[in-house]
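Example 3.2
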Amino acid sequence: MTCTTAGRLDAVLAHALGSSRAQAARWISEARVSVDGQTVARASAKVAEGQSLAVDVPVDESRTVRREKVEGLGVLYDDEDIVVVDKPVGVAAHPSPGWHGATVVGALAGEGYEISTSGAAERAGIVHRLDVGTSGAMVVAKTERAYTALKAAFKERTVEKVYHAVVQGLPDPLKGTVDAPIGRHPGHEWKFAVLEGGRNSVTHYEVVEAFGPASLLEIHLETGRTHQIRVHFSALRHPCAGDLMYGADPALAAELGLTRQWLHARRLSFAHPVSGEQVSVTSPYPQDLEYALRHLRGEVSH
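Structure, written as tokens:
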């Protein structure tokens, strides 16, 4: 694979493979990692964008696909080439080192779906991802032709990704664009932050409803960085309600009954990878997010 960012080898490797830095550092110390064909044994070694990385990843049961039934995972669209799932909270897109919970790949296998075999076995068919703590619409490729076309569509940013988020306070202006680069947080392995020299990241938003302590936003992503919405609105001092990792108020989270960030992949629109016809799906709010919204509207109380 090719480095898409510069930095410490363990951090770059972890980002590329979706693993922890500790796991990446262990592979480096075991002489499993090479840069431009040369084995590198120091996790702190610097790598540059464009350099070639190779990793001899050991067989790991956590990376094999486990067929499973996943409660709450629905199907919004299904045909010969693609399936759009309604991913519940607490489910990862695919298996990865350190993750032992449910996955979309495993759930589809458990339901008897045959999906594309392109890419790493544990990521078969996955053309984009949602965070474990984010629910909503997610498309998976069932055929090789769909996988190739959808990967290109996401890369070329022709897929419309619309999220709804409840953020603390009221953003000013009520409609705008956040254009701020995002990179790995220098002090926290699992966090990201707005950083000079980070990857280009653009988020468009509009306030749909204002409630006083919080606001419901409709968000269009121009780029698709990890934790992008959470990082951008945290940087604006309007973190997603319930997102304690990025500075949300625990008291408001408790009042709204939230145990995760109020963030939902609401709509997904794209040209069908084979027919070219427009596909557009909408995911309903799950119960926990719907309850929090009704509470803010004064329709329910504790």
